[in-house]
Sequence to fold (123 residues):
Amino acid sequence: MKKIFGSFKSIKWQALVVAVPLTLAYPIIKAAISQRNRLMIFADTLLIISLILVALGVLFTFTRFGDFDITRYIFRRGTDKNAKSFAEYKKDREAERRETFNYPLFFGLVYLALSLFISFVFC
Fold:
C-alpha cells in the first residue's frame, strides 16, 4: 500500500486543508439545496466525485511509477540545451517522485467507502 499511495509521512497538511473542502463542496451544496432525501443525494454525488478521483489517482499512479517518463523525455529533449541521457533523466525524476503522495487515489477510495457506507446503512 505504501508503494501505491507513497509515504504517509509525506502528507502535507496544508494540502489536506485545501483538498477536503474542495472535493466535498459539490456533494454538500447539492444535498443542501435538494428538497427531499438529502442523504441519498449526498451519497450519490459523493460516489460520482469518488469515481472521478479514483480515475485521476490511477493516472497519477502511472506518473509516479514512471510510465510516462520516456514520452516526457522525448518531448523535452528537443528544447533542452544540455540534453541528458535517458538514464540520468529517469534517475532525477525518481528522486523527485519519491516525496509525492497520491492524494486523488487516497481521497477517492475514502469517499467511495464513505458513500457505500452511507448508502447501505442509512438509505
About this structure: The CA atoms of residues 62 and 89 lie 17 Å apart. The chain is about 75% helix and 0% strand.
